[in-house]
Amino acid sequence: QVQLVESGGGLVQAGGSLRLSCAASGRTVSTFSRYAMGWFRQAPGKEREFVAANRWSGGSTYYADSVKGRFTISRDTAKNTVYLQMNNLKPEDTAVYYCATTATVASATNQYEYEFWGQGTQVTVSS
User: Which of 13, 34, 9 is nearest to 21 (CA)?
Assistant: First the structure.
């Protein structure tokens, strides 16, 4: 069974930075390198939304317009870990952030195509 464990959330002032990590287990390194990995977030009272995704290790990356230029998704294949570097954080970035993975996707930005999800990590940005 695939498991995803997020970490790195916390409280930060506007303009600050955080790096989220998502450690994956349950598949070999070579297998995960071919999996799509994505980050999504859900703010209070709102639906979960796409943040960033990587189709496979070394493959295309995608970002929501709201985070483009501020957030960067990356992967350490040897560690089966995906990161989300978040810079210049804004209060509207406050949410629970989830990582997700799946073997194949038609659209890496579509949360409904992801099979496995982490438990989420809280990010709070104060003004």
Answer: 9
